[in-house]
Amino acid sequence: VQLQASGGGLVQAGGSLRLSCAVSGRTFSNYIMGWFRQAPGKEREFVGRIYWSSGTTYYADFVKGRFTISRDKAKNTLYLQMNSLKAEDTAVYYCAARAGWAQEYDYWGQGTLVTVSS
């Protein structure tokens, strides 16, 4: 599985941004796709995930109500819609994938930088 994230940039606090992640390489209907982020000087943290087949989502508490994960099966693309952005959302955002039975995310995109100015 190959993943390529895009859509990062500079946005003002309170604004919105949508990240995309193009997915390719093999059959991934039974995969779980995740979004992670890593802020400067901090460890990478989980943002949320979506089951590719069913569309069921799960989010970290700090993004509930502000971020939405979705996928377009026809385009093989994963999305992260980010609203009401805060300065503390500044980070490199990564998309990742794992098989439904796996414990770890085996496939990672290259990351896209989101900078939120206050």
H-E string: EEEEEEEEEEE
The chain-level structural class is mainly beta
Which stretches are low in confidence, meaning pLDDT under 50 for 5 or more residues running? Answer: none
The first-to-last residue Cα distance is 37 Å
Instruction: Estimate the helix proportion, in percent.
Output: under 10%
Averaged pLDDT, please? Answer: 95
Task: Supply the number of helical segments.
Answer: 0
The fraction of residues in strands falls at over 45%
- The number of E-state strands comes to 11
Largest sheet data: 7 strands, mixed
Task: Describe what you observe in this structure.
The chain has strands spanning 2-6, 9-12, 17-24, 31-38, 45-51, 57-59, 67-72, 77-82, 91-99, 107-108, 112-117. The strands form two sheets. Strands 2, 4, 5, 6, 9, 10 and 11 form a seven-stranded mixed beta sheet that branches. A hairpin with a 7-residue loop joins β9 (91-99) and β10. It is an all-beta fold and 118 residues long. The radius of gyration is 13 Å and the shape is globular.
Ordered list of secondary-structure elements with their pairings:
Elements: E1 2-6, E2 9-12, E3 17-24, E4 31-38, E5 45-51, E6 57-59, E7 67-72, E8 77-82, E9 91-99, E10 107-108, E11 112-117
Parallel strand pairs: 2-11
Antiparallel strand pairs: 1-3, 3-8, 4-5, 4-9, 5-6, 7-8, 9-10, 9-11
